[in-house]
Write a structure and sequence with these properties.
Order of helices and strands: HHHHHHHHHHHH
Radius of gyration: 20 Å
Distance between the termini: 20 Å
Number of domains: 2
Mean pLDDT: 85
Number of helices: 12
Shape: globular
Helix content: over 70%
Number of strands: 0
Strand content: under 5%
Length: 297
């Protein structure tokens, strides 16, 4: 690619990281404001599903996709190679890797569900009660918005939810967190495990949900390892999409059993079996890819 005015190709990695964070923060402020204008203009229709979907789409695209694309352009690299979108795209090996990671996601569901409930039940010391109340109020407000979207039971409504809540975040967040942040931290630290966990912490922190922080860190780590060991961003995008789709379909289901038992604790036995199965699948994935050079960015 030719030279461009915004090139950071030869800039130190730590400075590239700062540039990316600053650009991302600017985009977040700009596009959040733009989404807010849409809400204000809509007036009494501000809390309708269509307006919420539009405002969320604006925020997600502006906050995650545009900064990631800018960074790729500033690094003077081709998008498919930088984000590893074409790596082994048509090979059976990629499909096999995808199935391994899908199996990991499936067997880890009871374990993650247990951790989700544990994290949600955490209470801060009494001296921080005001902070805890503020955080729970913020999370409840976000949940109320989500409930409005997931209350749609029509085919068109569920389809739009799948696009905006499942597909768009899967693509945008993987481009941002795994495609840029994990890639950059891996180049900077030269330690893939440290890069994966730091990027997972950033991934969870930027969702601003304290009472879901730990399980989202674990999800971020799974997606990070999927990226590293598959050598393709396609694998974590698909995993992220499946995770989001399952949540949308679960909460959109008209089945009263599915909707009434969300808070049911996961049995300890199932949690233990899930933990052992998760470890076993992780070991199998690492061994199967040990001879493959694609596990380094």
């Amino acid at each position: 690619m030719g030279n461009n005015f915004f090139s950071i190709k030869n800039t130190p990695l730590w400075l590239q990281f700062i540039y990316f964070i600053l650009i991302s923060a600017g985009c977040f402020i700009l596009f959040t404001a733009l989404a807010g204008i849409v809400v204000i203009i809509s007036g009494k229709n501000a809390l309708t599903p269509s307006i919420i979907l539009i405002s969320q789409s604006i925020t997600v695209i502006g906050t995650f996709i545009l900064p990631a694309l800018w960074f790729c352009y500033a690094r003077q690299e081709r998008m498919t190679s930088f984000f590893k979108l074409s790596a082994h795209l048509n090979s059976n090996r990629l499909y096999l890797k995808w199935l391994w990671w899908l199996l990991l996601w499936v067997v880890s569901i009871p374990l993650l569900s247990y951790i989700i409930r544990w994290n949600a039940d955490i209470s801060l010391p009494a001296s921080f009660s005001a902070v805890e109340n503020w955080m729970r109020t913020m999370e409840q407000a976000a949940q109320n918005i989500t409930n409005i979207l997931l209350s749609q039971k029509t085919f068109a409504g569920i389809t739009l939810n799948l696009i905006v809540i499942a597909l768009l975040p899967a693509i945008s967040e993987e481009l941002f967190f795994r495609g840029v942040i994990l890639r950059l931290l891996s180049e900077w630290f030269k330690k893939k495990h440290i890069a994966i966990w730091v990027s997972a912490i950033i991934f969870s922190a930027l969702h601003f949900q304290f009472f879901g922080f730990v399980p989202r860190v674990l999800l971020g780590a799974i997606l990070g390892y999927a990226f590293i060991y598959s050598g393709s961003l396609i694998v974590p995008i698909l995993l992220h999409f499946v995770n989001n789709v399952s949540a949308v379909l679960f909460y959109s289901s008209s089945n009263p059993i599915l909707n009434s038992e969300v808070e049911t604790p996961v049995p300890v036995l199932w949690t233990a079996v899930s933990a052992f199965a998760t470890i076993a699948v992780i070991i199998a994935i690492i061994k199967s890819d040990k001879h493959n050079s694609s596990n380094s960015l």
